[in-house]
Design brief:
Elements lengths: L38 H11 L4 H11 L3 H25 L3 E7 L4 E6 L5 H5 L4 E4 L4 H13 L10 E5 L4 E6 L2 H9 L8 E5 L8 E5 L2 E3 L3 E3 L2 E5 L2 E6 L9 E3 L5 E9 L5 E6 L3 E8 L5 E3 L11 E6 L3 E16 L2 E9 L11 E4 L2 E12 L3 E8 H8 L2 E2 L16 E7 L4 E4 L5 E3 L2 E8 L5 E10 L2 E8 L5 E8 L2 E11 L2 E8 L2
Parallel strand pairs: 2-3, 5-6, 7-15
Antiparallel strand pairs: 1-2, 4-5, 8-9, 10-11, 10-23, 11-14, 12-13, 13-14, 15-16, 17-18, 17-20, 18-19, 19-22, 20-21, 21-22, 24-32, 25-31, 26-31, 27-30, 27-32, 28-29, 28-31
Length: 502
Amino acid sequence: MLRRSAVTAGLVLAAALVATPATAAHQGPGETAAAPYTLAEARTLVEATAKPSPGLVDAIRRDLGGTSEQASARLVNEAAAAKVEPALRGQLGASFAGSWVTGPTSNLVIATSDSTKVASLARSGAEVKLVKNSLATLDTAKERLDRLVASAPKSIPSWYVDVRSNSVVVLAGDVAEAQAFVDGSGVDGALVRVEASQEKPRPLYDVRGGDAFYMGGRCSVGFSVTRGSQGGFATAGHCGTPGTATQGYNQVAQGTFQGSSFPGNDYAWVAVNANWTPTGVVNGYSAGILPVTGSTQQVVGSSICRSGSTTQYRCGTISQHNTSVTYPEGTITGLTRTTVCAEPGDSGGSYISGSQAQGVTSGGSGNCTSGGTTYHQPINEILSVYGLTLVTNGTPPPPTGCSGYQSSYTGSLTSNANAYQPGTSGYSAASGVHRVCLDGPNGTDYDAYLQKLSGSTWTTVASGTTANPDEAFTYSGTAGTYRVRVHAYSGSGSYTLGLTRP
């Protein structure tokens, strides 16, 4: 199902901001209006209303260093600074020269070019720094460089206002060339610092199921995957052979086919370059961006939807598993037959049921005008054959040792045995996201299943079942009782399970 044509895809990004009302300002006779409260008062308010979550504290400690106590203090102080800083900025007016936080616990610093403002600023609890240039002066200098962007040397990767050094910084691969640009810009040289830099910025793109990719023709991305530290995606085998180069939906160089099987099978995987980031989502087009939380195969009769770059998002039902299909090129075995329609160019695209990845589009008959029958290659077989890990929504590649989770459990299994954590009776959880990580012994195949109690029956709601010792996945569920089943599919030895519950 290859077709030569162009396709565009959008990216949806959402952000939420929560505002907290300020208390009354403290102001003495003849004084300029001060911040609505001091940093100490703001910290007290933050600690009472927005305690940092354990998972966030662990992530800050992991990536920024320091202790858990310092990470917690950092988060509280940063939230307090955000409440106090706008008022201090307004108090300074034209003499405001920037603000920042510093140190392992993020202490607020306010800069001003007016020495008469220092004493009143200090009453807020912030550190005050007296500098020569106001932020407005520095912004004007940078805007002058912005207007000259067409004549800027390619060896300059970036320029910006650096409030810490009270200057405009120009990063330069060639310092002499950059200095000549600054000297000819008309900007006061005393405001600018040229710094040597090896930075080489590049645009970054997301790998999403259902998006187009090109390789002489056009196919569609199935699901994002990783193998070790290498990211990529699964797709149909008939879309390319090992060594075939791919371009993304935007025609930018993307990656290379690493493995492919067709006919007999119809699966492949592509390793992407550093410009592309695998994400645990499917582009549902009119249905929005859809999360992928696992790859549990659904039973016959279940609803299933397909995303592809020609006909976009279409739905139907599962007719049969383990189907053999004969194409002109040969017979393919082990496919799943569905009532979802598809057309040329949809090949390789995502089949998803709920939030569970099912497979990649292989072929079929009919079209999306008159209807038809289509077949997909099951995703779990692709993961197993190539030793890939499915990228799920918000989940990076499996972490070594499963650190940074709310709870940690250890145990030991023999081949084909099971264990339940934190026990057979499970744990109570509120509505929200469960994070599960399994670190099994090297050379084994250990799997993890998140189960929910329904009446007296435990039902698997999410799983990690690759042909690897390590698994990691998330699941967004309703309140209830849950447990994790650890299964030694092959091999024996000790394991560690990381679990964060809502």
